[in-house]
């Protein structure tokens, strides 16, 4: 707001009229208000500087914490991604330090400009205030002289000449003081426009230069953001794979704990037992809990006094078992599950036998301990036949099956989204593999068994993965497994490549041939990643756990999944060099250089496996009526057991595999959140840079009105860009056959009104044939009314032509004009 003051004319100042005095008072009041406003402004700016210093101190504390933060990784070695993520925190701290150094420079220069503002207030405005005091005194003297001169009587004519001369001289001096004061006031008003504003402008430019320095730091930081995001995505994919394998191992441990506990253990049996000791003198019985271990080859029995609720642990006590008997019935010890061990203390005489009475926790535990220590139990139980899992041989028929699957896939579906990631129906996958490797078929019959061309691609892909997963020995063999993992842990990339190449040549011929065929195919698949979304990283996650399966499944082996995936990823990318007879140094340099170049180029976020959530959760709707039969199975999956067509006697051949399940919502939603959070940040930073350049140009030459227009235009463009970015991200998750206008409408409505209720009317997009009485059959472009939600995800209840039933949610479109 601009306040207008009347000019102080010199003629009015000489006349010294009441109007002049009123104008003079307005100027003086305005000058006082200006002085107070500048004083208040300086105070507020000082508060900003103090807050800046406080913020700088806190930010430096954050930077130091980031630099001293340490990651503890489970396992003996770190992957390249884990090493980069660990060092990234230190780099973040360095970036914060650079920002705070720029903030310190801002504070130092700002203090200088604040001193200039205060100097303007004290000197320029202060000079006018001092002049006002002198003018007031001169006015008082002049008025007093006039009054005294008026009091001279006519009788004193001798005083007239002197009095008139003094009055004339005082009048001249008063007018001179008045004109000087009036001119000084107007000078201060004019100087305020450039002296004060120029200093304030320099201060504002100082602030903007700090933000510009932040923008420059961001430009340097941009590469790091993309690089680190690429590493984080790889770690996320490894975690998803780790989670699947961990769930599978946990399930196996719950189903068959004894089988897994006995594998790769130093002792044949271990667990908690209660040692019962009787004192015959005083007739008391003491029961203590021990953790016991037994090694059958040397009959070593170890006891450790320990309870889970106590951290105190005693020294192990070892004895050698001679024989074991079931504790006879005893009135004084009337307890179940008791047995006696006749043993010799370690280092003791063989003639001195000690008897230890133990009590097991349950019948199964009791029988297990008695049996393993050589005792006899007079209880006959029918032996249960153990069901064995499917196991395939890697022979000519196996390689032939893989080649047939690959031929069909390459002929029909290299551009299929989510290839090898979207799983087929379990019953169809099991039927395909079991039919091809039927034990009653001869080798010639297996080789003659075709892979049907009209079969769904996801079924063929899942069958190929199931075959690799159920091999008796994985493609990379149990013998070379540890050496492959150790090679992947080598820090030097060139040495890592050289070691992996030599290990591949050590594979048996059948394994080598199958690996070459498979890697050649997967390389072709990765070349189409713009359409199928399957990059070498994603394919490594899909095939690493199967190709490099460990002999004994443990949690430690699951932590090695990241190295298994990295091995497969490397071979897929450089399959032409990794299968050379001799690897030249030039080849190694090219492989190392290309991997670093790929990391530097960033990552296509849309190719992350996490972006396939919508595909794995529910297949995209068909484009034509010819595909209705193939998608019906996917729609039925939520309504009945997928193992319905499997014979009960053969169901044990196809164990539950968590790898065939879709990802959990938590990991997928967090990946999608990371996708939606990246673009807007980049958009805002670009607009801040544009705003700075606009301000700089306006300071030089452009008028204030055009400056305001461009700023508002820039803000509008920023809002539009952010909106369009969000819409484009949302559109990637919609079915591919829906029009772009529908996608935009859906995205905008979901952003503007996220809590809107489900509409009750819609229109069908595609024809659909019902699979059972609870579903509705309909054609395209039919009206659906009375729509309401159901407990079944992805299904709605609606009415079409007077009939009510279930309708797939992605087969209809909610349109306000229906």
Automatic annotation (TrEMBL):
The keyword Coiled coil applies. Residues 17-44 form a coiled coil. Keywords: Coiled coil, GTPase activation, SH3 domain. One of its GO terms (molecular function) is GTPase activator activity. Residues 757-817 form the SH3 domain. The keyword RNA-binding does not apply. It comes from the Eukaryota. InterPro entries: AH/BAR_dom_sf, BAR_dom, GRAF_fam, PH-like_dom_sf, Rho_GTPase_activation_prot, RhoGAP_dom, SH3-like_dom_sf, SH3_domain. It holds the Pfam family BAR_3. One of its GO terms (biological process) is signal transduction. Residues 384-579 form the Rho-GAP domain. Residues 651-683 are annotated as: Disordered. GO terms for cellular component: cytoplasm. This is Rho GTPase-activating protein 26.
